[in-house]
Amino acid sequence: MKTPYEAGGFAFSDEKMMEKAVKEGEGIRYIRNSTDMKDPQTVFLVYGQMVEQRLFETPVGYVYLHELQEYLRANPSIRNQEIPAIPVIAHGAEGKKKTEEGRAKSAPKQTERARVKNVKNVDYKPWFRASLAVSVILLLIVVGMFAVTATSDNINIVNYENALIEKYEKWETQLKEREEKIREREAASFD
Known about the structure:
Low-confidence stretches: none
Structural class: mainly alpha
Number of helices: 7
Shape: rod-shaped
Radius of gyration: 38 Å
Number of domains: 3
Largest sheet: 2 strands, antiparallel
C-alpha cells in the first residue's frame, strides 16, 4: 500500500517534506554523476562541504551522508577523527526554532588552518602531468606550424623578403641576358 507522500523509500507526513526528499534525491544523483566517488580525498571534501552547509534535511539525504561516512571510515587514508558527524535537523514547529538556534550555536567555523589542512590532502600530480602533456603538445604544434611556414613555397610573412629578392634577381639576370643579345646584334650589324 503506497502512502500519498512517499519518496526514496520513505513515507512522509506532509507534501513539503516529500518534495524536499525528492529534491535531495535529485541532488544526490547529480553528485554521484559529476564527482569521482572512487577517490577518498574527493569524497572527504564533498562530504565535509555537505555536512558544513547542512544540505540534507530528510532521511533520503541522511542515508546518503551515512553511506559516505561509512565509506570514509572504512578507508585507511582518511583518519576517522577528521570525519565530521552528520547534523540532524528536528522538524515541526518547535523543531524549526531549535534548528535555527542549533545552527547558530553549533555551526562549526572552519579555521584557516583546517582549510589548508584539507587542501594539503589533494593530489595535484595528475593535474600537473596532464597540463604538462598538453603544454608540450601545443608547443610541438606551434613549432610545426613555423617549420611548415618557413619551408613552404608560398609567399608569406616569414619568407616574403627572400621571395622578393629572388624575383628581382631573376629579372636582373633576364635583363642582362637581353642586353648582351642586343649588343651582340648591334656589333654584328656594324661589322
